[in-house]
Amino acid sequence: MPEYTVFCIEKSRQGTTWIAAVKADNPDQAWRLGRQQCAADWGFKDSLDIHVLGVAEGNVKILEWHD
Predict the structure, then answer these.
(1) pTM for the whole thing?
(2) Which of 17, 18, 34, 62 is the most exposed place for a label (fewest CB within 10 A)?
(3) Residue 8 belongs to domain spanning
(4) Which of 30, 47, 31, 51 has its CA nearest to residue 39?
């Protein structure tokens, strides 16, 4: 199963950026799985509180990030 890196923030656009790799069949599934995993990691009951900024192909190694 391919890996995708998903970038998420809170829907309010406040706080930090969540970045993690997920295994999925396609980018759409990665988008959904990433949003669900981010919500779970941050303790949100509803993944609709999470905004997906983007999905990248592969397990991207972030060297530096400034938001």
Answers:
(1) 0.90
(2) 62
(3) 3-57
(4) 47
